[in-house]
What we know:
Rossmann fold; seven-stranded parallel β-sheet; 13 strands
Amino acid sequence: MGESRTALVTGSAGFIGYFTCRRLLADGFAVIGIDSLSDYYDPELKRRRQAGLLQNAGFTAINEAIETPGLLADLFAQHQPDIVIHLAAQAGVRYSIDNPRTYLESNLVGTFELLEAARTHPPQHMLLASTSSAYGANTEMPYRETMKADHQMSFYAATKKATEAMAHSYAHLFELPVTMFRFFTVYGPWGRPDMALFKFTRAMLEGEPIDVYNHGDMMRDFTYVEDLVEAIRRLVDTAPERPQSPEDIAEGDSLSPVAPWRVVNIGNSQPVQLGEMIAAIEDALGIEAKRNLMPMQPGDVPATWADAQLLHSLTGYVPKTDIREGVQRFVEWYRDYYRV
């Protein structure tokens, strides 16, 4: 195995997708990347990421929406992927309030098409992106995978929690090994323009005030993108197996008692105050931010904090990039990309 495996990555021109494909290509995988290059944010950024991937002969780009009926079924039949990493989704909490149908189509219908394709041509392991937002109204921190997660606070989070349940049913019925991973506020070079780090950096360079929600009383478990990808890469080779009995499930493991399915947090395990992130940008730019203090936004949560013990027990790895180091790398990329 190893060097000749084929991976299918959805959302391959996205922020996380780009770094994931890059890593798989470096490890010798043939990578089929699917991305609709949607205009939710600047498609030029997606095209530039994709152009970088296309410089590798092992990468194939398909610019289509995953919810297109039959598209994924045809790709699975043609390429018989060994590994599937499902990152394509309509992202963003705020956008889901105004445009819920796009979340229904991309996140639910798109994931359904993927699961149906996998049912006919089963891969060795499917890894599907979920979100820390799935923990919803939980106030006990840090978040552990074995906690109940029933009270999602945005339609975005609700669709991602629904995909976990959908994937579980397919894992149970068709013996498809599935790992769901819940991301915690991913950031870094090539990041998304709708995320706070990008918006704050742009505003500060343009001399504009930054919108600081909940008057800055927010904590996020900021996770550097290459740490996230390292975790994903290690999880690729850690496919869950259906337990013989519930007694076989280790304490703290989210492994299903009835399916080869588990959910894994990928986070830095170090919640950071929003003010600390802003200070890191100020230091990296040499500019003091003008703050526009705002109330909490609908659907948002005041804090996230990952317990990453399960990730560590499965892979021996936990993310560890410090917020100041990660922000510095982002700012260097931003200045270079936009020539500012």
